[in-house]
Design a protein that fits this description.
mainly alpha, Leucine-rich Repeat Variant, 12 helices
C-alpha cells in the first residue's frame, strides 16, 4: 500500500498505461476515514487527472470527486461537464449534483442541450438528484420537448421516484419490451434489477 507521498509521486510520474485514479480509489478504500490533509491532496490529484489524455482516468477521477469533493472542486467538475468525451460528461453531471446540490440546477439545465442522449439521460437524473425545488416542474416540461427515448428514461426515472403512476405504468410496459436495451433502461428507471 502506498503512503500519501508515494501516491502523489505515482500519480504525477506514472505513464498513462497505469490506472492512477484506481490507485487513488484503492488508497481511499484502505482507510476508515481520511484526514483533512489527505482529502485535500486526493482532491487535488483527482483535479489533475481530469486533464489526463485517457478518458478512463478522467471518468474515474470525476467519480471520485463525487465522494470526496467539495465546493472548491466545482469549477473543475464543471470543466469535466464540458469534456469532449460523452463518457466523462455523464458522471460529471452526477458529481456536480452531488457536490453542488441545488446550486447545480441552472448549470445542469443548460447541459440538457447536450447532443448526446446518454449525457442528457444522466443530466436529467442529476437534475432530480440536486434537490432544487423547481426540478419536478422543469423535468415535466422537458418531457414534452425531449424526443430521444434513451434520454427520456432519465426523466421517467425521476418522475417515478415522485410516485407518478402514469410514468410507472409506462416503464412497467417498457420493461416487457422485446428490445433488450429498452427493457434494461426501463428496469433501471424502475429501480429494479433484471433477473
Amino acid at each position: 500500500m502506498y503512503s500519501l507521498d508515494e501516491l502523489v509521486e505515482f500519480v504525477l510520474t506514472a505513464s498513462s498505461s497505469y490506472s492512477k485514479a484506481w490507485r487513488i480509489e484503492e488508497y481511499i478504500e484502505a482507510r476508515e476515514s481520511l484526514t483533512q490533509k489527505e482529502r485535500k491532496v486526493l482532491r487535488g490529484l483527482c483535479r489533475i487527472l481530469l486533464t489526463d489524455p485517457d478518458s478512463c482516468e478522467r471518468v474515474e477521477a470525476v467519480e471520485l470527486l463525487g465522494g470526496i469533493g467539495n465546493r472548491n472542486d466545482i469549477f473543475a467538475i464543471k470543466m469535466a461537464c464540458r469534456d469532449p468525451e460523452w463518457v466523462v460528461r455523464c458522471p460529471a453531471a452526477s458529481t456536480l449534483a452531488s457536490v453542488a446540490g441545488a446550486g447545480a440546477f441552472r448549470y445542469l439545465t443548460k447541459m440538457a442541450d447536450d447532443p448526446n442522449p446518454h449525457v442528457r439521460r444522466w443530466v436529467y437524473t442529476a437534475i432530480w438528484d440536486c434537490g432544487h425545488p423547481d426540478r419536478e416542474a422543469w423535468l415535466r416540461a422537458r418531457e414534452s420537448v425531449e424526443k430521444n427515448e434513451k434520454a427520456l428514461f432519465g426523466i421517467w426515472g425521476a418522475l417515478r421516484e415522485l410516485g407518478d403512476e402514469a410514468v410507472k405504468e409506462r416503464l412497467e410496459m417498457l420493461a416487457e419490451s422485446e428490445d433488450m436495451r429498452t427493457r434494461s433502461r426501463a428496469i433501471g428507471a424502475l429501480g429494479l434489477r433484471e433477473d
